Amino acid sequence: MNKKKVFVLLPDGVGLRNFAYSNFYEIGKNFHDIVFWNNTPFDLSELNYPEIKFEKPILHPFTDVFKNGVIQASLTKNSKIEKDQVYDTYRFKSKTVGLKNKIKNTVVSFLNSNYSNQKSILSLRNRINKLERSTTYYKDCRATLEREKPDFVFCTNQRPVVAIAPLLAAKDLKIPTATFIFSWDNLPKATMVVQTDFYFVWSQHMKNELLHYHPEIQENQIKITGTPQFESHYDDNNFIEREVFFKIHNLDTNKKYICYSGDDITTCPDDEVYLNDVAKAVSELNRNGHNLGIIFRRSPVDFSTRYDSVLKEFKNIIVPINPDWRKIGEGWNTILPTPNDNSLLVNTIRHSELVINLGSSMVFDFAIFNKPCLYINYDVENKKDKNWSVKKIYQFVHFRSMTSKEAVGWISDSQSIASVIEKNLSKKQNIEATKWFEKITCQPANLASDRIWKSINSII
Q1: CATH classification of 4-59+135-227+445-459 is 3.40.50.2000, yes or no?
Q2: How far apart are CA 38 and CA 11, in angstroms?
């Protein structure tokens, strides 16, 4: 059988875990010649992966402004159509310092006010395509494709603006293209930046979302595959025995540990206060006969010192096991995972009794191992940001996919933390959490890479 050549486009580092650190390459190389078209700082040749690096891609000066216009106009469109103000909560504050930023904001505001309907949004996308086709970056991408002659270009993330030019070049050369929808919460947030021939989604639920938010996309363009995000949880090669894991991370083998999974400072400005409340509750439980500790896994993009005082005060209870990510630059998307973090995450889950966090997808990671997740659901006193509230978090569209409120345990105030933990310590399985996980991603969850490659095969 003649192998086809598949370019796997990595426009930024968020796709590394799914497509470079999973079984994706090993499965696909049996059928295809795979080349990573790599725009990350990581050298994939260290993993013996064929790669072609980008040479400092430079966008058209107006592309980013029009991209932001598309996002804002899409959120306004969705808000008007559905009469739902939740879409306004997805807007980020713009930089206002300097004349350049003020001009950008004025243009984006104009586009948002005048282009917030389906036809106008598509016209903005066409404008972006025209701008990008005029760049040296586009010409370089086209030259690479003409030289390498791939049969398919697969983009690992629909959000990065740097992915537009290489995908346009492929389409102009009649090379089929596809993009993977990276996360379970992406589509309501209007994060679809690229346009491709096909779209790979996690589930029927995500397919319905894609058709709802993007009526320009046809049903036959969508492939339901699941996500490789969870595949490492099923791989015995990642598992480390309890005694070994505890020794490596200086954990007490006489204790049972709960995991506190941190959020970034934007999602949860008062996360260190919640950790403090949980540590106090664990102290209370230990006084009443339990022997518990806390494994603190901070958000991979949070390198702040805001937890330091809590970690110091409760050093006999809290053991930080930081994600194995590297900070390459200043932006959140330049903080990238290493291959080792898969094993670190998996074993943190396996050797914890449950997880506590504020509305993260860790509920699914723990559901795979039949372990409970507790969602924090109260505001602290003296909030840093008076406009922030947990009520806003749980109103986000992706939480409406929850099959039942019983999928998680709810912590409604700091005084109830101890009792909610104690109630859930003995739970061996949460059927509702499993149902939610099965709705969110195609099952079996460990075969996502296989389904992605079968979909690619069906296309080429």
Answers
A1: yes
A2: 7
